[in-house]
């Protein structure tokens, strides 16, 4: 069921505490943690604690949480001190776009010039 944890989802397992992650921020509805295969000096994933396969489905079903996801991405950028130098937010949607974990998430990338495709 949409929004419910999925037993085969890596990110749902991280939210449940079953798999460790380097958490940098957490709210009641979001979790932000460092990517295990970073593509930039700062590479953090911000995920909703509810399960939706992609950002579009999350936004359609629970727009408040989608908005919180973006706000938290901005807070992560501020915490990581990459706001002034610039940062990139990326939502990959579908395997053809590079999505490998089908739980909505946004990549926060920064710490170097973002003038190339990264994720």
TrEMBL record:
Motif (Histidine triad motif): 103-107
Origin superkingdom: Bacteria
Gene3D superfamilies noted in UniProt: HIT-like
Residue ranges annotated for the HIT domain, each copy included: 10-118
InterPro entries given in the database record: Histidine_triad_HIT (IPR001310), HIT-like (IPR011146), HIT-like_sf (IPR036265)
Pfam family, one: HIT
CDD domains, per the entry: PKCI_related
Protein name: Histidine triad nucleotide-binding protein
Phylogenetic placement of the source organism: Bacteria, Bacillati, Actinomycetota, Actinomycetes, Kitasatosporales
């Amino acid at each position: 069921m949409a929004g419910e944890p999925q037993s085969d989802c890596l990110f749902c397992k991280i939210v449940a505490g079953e798999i460790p992650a380097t958490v940098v921020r957490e709210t009641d509805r979001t979790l932000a943690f460092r990517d295990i295969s970073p593509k930039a000096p700062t590479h953090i994933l911000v995920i909703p604690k509810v399960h939706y396969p992609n950002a579009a489905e999350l936004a359609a079903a629970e727009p408040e949480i989608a908005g919180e996801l973006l706000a938290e991405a901005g807070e992560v950028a501020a915490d990581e001190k990459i706001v002034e130098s610039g940062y990139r937010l990326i939502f990959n949607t579908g395997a053809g776009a590079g999505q490998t974990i089908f739980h909505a998430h946004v990549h926060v990338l920064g710490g170097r010039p973002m003038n190339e495709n990264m994720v």
